[in-house]
Write a structure and sequence with these properties.
heterodimer; A: 666 residues; alpha+beta; 6-stranded antiparallel β-sheet; 4-stranded antiparallel β-sheet; 20 helices; 10 strands; globular; B: 170 residues; Helicase, Ruva Protein, domain 3; 0% strand; elongated; disordered C terminus
């Protein structure tokens, strides 16, 4: 028998567990007794453990690519016919593999986050090491016992059963890794927050040290959530992008609390307020991220995504409970040191806007949580099975979403601390006018949907409000430094990346909301078509020209060639498919979408009869394109935010910056 | 999110003259019931073949002029109360709305109270702050004063766009 790397998998995990336990003990002891040698040894043990976890990950990936069907996991989630990309995706296609991937990210991020840096806070870092090692221990225990990805089959089959065809989509190569990256990266601010509580170093240094991690985690999670929507849109074939299914909710809840955290952190840094609140928010965010992992991996909620039902659910709940109770108890015991150093000056202030933002995001997160778990609670209490579906979530989110988008525009117009109402009126005049003009124009154009009208009007209000911030900033640079508009704009952006990068993200959000509002105008039609016959959807006439059959190693292909005409003129040729995946003996539809900023024509074949007749579902989805465009704008804003030099470096160079005042003094 | 679809559906329902096409009625029904075939998603969003067939049946009922209420009754009779995508507004189902509404209200009131209390306490704080600042300024060395001036300038540059009484430096 030849040596296989896979045989190293489980031993590596055991070694990592031993090292993580050592890291936890050493750093805790080092932190308590102020023994820097022990603390440093703990940090190195954590780094070494991370190496072993990565080795285990490499072992599993190698086994997947080598088609080593002696491993149960490889047999269950891959096959000889599976392409290279999707073979890699099989790493997170099943429960055990995805937990290994989670743990790999966790240990890797931890090792990077606790590395030694000039001028950092050693004690904070030491206790963060303890917390991170503790979390890693939990996941390693899962991987070694109940969710072992290296289970060996006594009688290896010649081929595997392959990956679920639904997961064989380009989106699946990046959507789960991004979500996991987001979930896991929140471990770092969480651990430093807990370390701040443990050490009573409750100033802003833990926030500063983890600011970039928070941004990174939030960015990955945001893009991950959007890509999940894009995957649903292009792959599932029901013409929409968000079904409020429990697994989507599981990724959305931590995003909501994280977004609240991202905003309220600004108040603590600027005004030294909201300390308890921020610690609670990061605790909530991380708990929800772990809860999300638990929801998707325990099988407690059945959903289209919950393709695994495993024995690990009972492990997650105690862990979650320990985390929440421990975290809250610690916040409670430190309340005296967590008092605000400042007060609200006025209700008309940026602080109030941030507070309102937090209330709305939290209400949204709670509504999603409630809707997601309510069926379980109701069944446990009264034995009645009932469902809480998209209509509930939509009706909760319309008002909250509208309020948030309005606040996105209002926030930047309001000054910190206090503001003269007259000045406020002067600031709001132009954006308000733009919003009103949009509403009037839409009503005149015959838009009757109140929801869409309000949403688009608010989008225009907010876009103008945020845009005017750029204009104001650039105007000052133009005047002071005699720059042209583009240069002044660039200067504005680069001088304060945090602020203007955030505004770019907000502009992306505005576009996304614009895309959502398009759903009011969507048209959907279904028909059973024989070759040569037609159907009408919106302004389009779709003609089923012919059926084309084909075959690859993986699947039998049935492609319906459909032409779309508008006003008698051919505008699009669409080729939706209905394919039989051979290994799974499962039919899978491939959607055809003709996308434009105005509207998407979306066609899916839900069945093909033996005689060649096709069941066709067709949608006209106005403005959907803007959702993806908005996400791209958000991503640009995120890169601007992340390009800000790390706080440690800023501090190292700040005397120089102060010495040469860049702009004219008074 | 088909959030606006629901809103527009409501508007359409309320508009007296609007007569929805049977297809649109059928689509709306399928968006408001859970799929008996795929757990956790509406009939509208369910990709399975059986869901396709059920959607087709609903379309035929709607085309035959059967009202939305009657169709819902048929579906409930066939698949039970849990086909409702929103728990019906009586008994246990009520809680699904009440609890989040109460929590949101409570959160809002709590935040508002907090903000008001903080706002009231601001006067004394500001006096104390001013006093401290003035004392610090008196005791500052010339170098410190120079640095303060430079930092204020840098801060001002950062706060570009602040308005009357807006900047932190007030």
């Amino acid at each position: 028998m030849t040596f296989s790397l896979a045989s190293l998998g489980r031993p590596s995990l055991v070694a990592a567990l031993a090292l993580m336990l050592a890291a936890m003990a050493l750093s805790a002891w080092g932190g308590t007794k102020k023994q820097s040698a022990a603390a440093e040894a703990g940090r190195r043990a954590l780094t070494l453990a991370a190496g072993f976890v990565v080795l285990a990950g490499v072992a599993l990936v190698t086994a997947l690519f080598a088609h080593d069907f002696s491993l149960d996991y490889v047999t269950s989630y891959s096959s000889l016919a599976l392409s290279r990309g999707y073979t890699l995706a099989a790493l997170w296609g099943g429960m055990e593999g995805s937990l290994l991937f989670w743990t790999m990210l966790l240990c890797g991020f931890s090792a990077v986050a606790v590395r030694r840096r000039r001028g950092d806070d050693t004690l904070l870092r030491t206790w963060a090491t303890t917390v991170l090692a503790g979390i890693s221990v939990f996941f390693l225990v899962l991987l070694i016992w109940p969710a072992n990805p290296f289970v060996v089959l006594a009688d290896p089959p010649p081929n595997g059963t392959g990956l679920n065809p639904l997961l064989q989509s380009p989106g699946m190569l990046i959507h789960p890794p991004l979500l996991y990256t987001g979930f896991v990266a929140f471990s770092i601010p969480f651990a430093f927050g807990m370390a701040a509580l443990l050490t009573r170093r409750l100033d802003e240094s833990w926030l500063r040290l983890t600011r970039r991690w928070t941004l990174f985690a939030w960015s990955a999670l945001s893009i991950g959530v959007v890509l999940g929507g894009a995957w649903a849109y292009t792959e599932l074939g029901w013409g929409g992008y968000w079904a409020w299914d429990p697994v989507e909710n599981a990724s959305f809840m931590p995003w909501l609390t994280a977004t609240a955290y991202l905003h309220s952190v600004v108040i603590q840094e600027k005004r030294k307020m909201f300390k308890v609140w921020n610690l609670s928010l990061i605790l909530m965010t991380y708990a929800l991220a772990v809860f999300g992992t638990f929801l998707t991996r325990s099988g407690i909620l059945s959903s289209i995504h919950t393709f695994t039902e495993g024995p690990i659910g009972k492990w997650f709940l105690p862990f979650l409970a320990l985390m929440l109770v421990g975290g809250l108890a610690m916040i409670g015991s430190r309340l005296d040191s967590l008092r605000s150093e400042n007060r609200f000056d006025s209700l008309l202030s940026r602080e109030s806007a941030f507070l309102a933002n937090n209330v709305l995001f939290l209400a949204a997160a709670f509504a999603v949580l409630w809707g997601t778990i309510y069926p379980i609670i109701a069944e446990a209490v009264s034995g009645v099975r009932l469902a809480v579906g998209p209509p509930f979530f939509n009706s909760v989110f319309i008002p909250i979403g509208l309020a948030l988008i309005a606040l996105t525009g209002l926030g930047p117009l309001i000054a910190w601390r206090r503001m003269n109402p007259k000045a406020f009126l002067r600031m709001i005049r132009i954006p308000l006018g733009a919003g009103a003009a949009t509403a009037i124009a839409l009503a005149a154009a015959g838009v009757t949907s109140v929801g869409a009208l309000t949403a688009i009007a608010l989008c225009s209000f907010t876009a103008v409000a945020v845009g005017s911030e750029f204009v104001r900033g650039s105007r000052v640079h133009r005047a002071r430094e005699k720059l042209g508009w583009p240069a002044a704009l660039a200067r504005t952006l680069m001088r304060n990346r945090r602020r203007y990068g955030g505004y770019i993200v907000h502009l992306g959000v505005v576009l996304i909301v614009l895309g959502f509002s398009g759903a009011s105008f969507k048209v959907e039609r279904s028909a059973h078509l024989a070759e040569g016959s037609s159907m009408v959807v919106g302004d389009y006439t779709l003609t089923y020209e012919e059926l084309v059959r084909g075959e690859t190693g993986e699947k039998e292909i049935y492609q319906a060639n459909i032409s779309a005409a508008r006003d008698g003129e051919l505008v699009e040729a669409l080729t939706p498919q209905r394919n039989l995946h051979k290994v799974q003996q499962q039919y899978q539809s491939e959607v055809a979408i003709a996308s434009s900023p105005i509207e998407d024509l979306y066609v899916v074949v839900t069945a093909i009869d033996p005689d060649g007749d096709a069941s066709v579902r067709a949608f006209v989805n106005p403005l959907t394109w803007w959702i993806w465009a908005g996400a791209a704008v958000m991503a640009i804003g995120m890169s601007v935010l992340l390009s800000e030099p790390s706080p440690a470096r800023v501090r190292a160079t700040s005397p120089a910056r102060v010495a040469k005042p860049a702009v004219a003094t008074r | 999110m088909r959030a606006w679809a629901v809103a527009s559906a409501l508007v359409l329902l309320l508009a007296p003259a609007a007569q929805a096409a049977p297809e649109d009625t059928a689509n709306r029904i399928s968006e408001n019931i859970m799929s008996p075939f795929c757990p956790g998603v509406t009939l509208h969003d369910c990709p399975s073949q059986q869901a396709d067939d059920l959607r087709e049946r609903i379309r035929r009922w709607a085309a035959a002029g059967i009202g939305e209420d009657r169709i819902m009754e048929r579906l409930v009779a066939e698949y039970g109360e849990e086909v409702h995508a929103i728990p019906p507004g009586d008994g246990g189902g009520f809680t699904s709305w009440l609890v989040p509404a109460l929590v949101a209200l409570g959160g809002g009131v709590f935040a508002a109270t907090l903000a008001r209390r903080w706002t009231k306490a601001r006067e004394q704080d500001r006096e104390r702050e001013d006093l401290r600042a003035r004392r610090a300024l008196r005791e500052a060395t010339p170098e410190q004063r120079e640095r303060l001036k430079a930092e204020l300038a840098a801060q001002e540059a950062q706060m570009l766009g602040g308005v009357d009484g807006g900047g932190l430096q007030t």
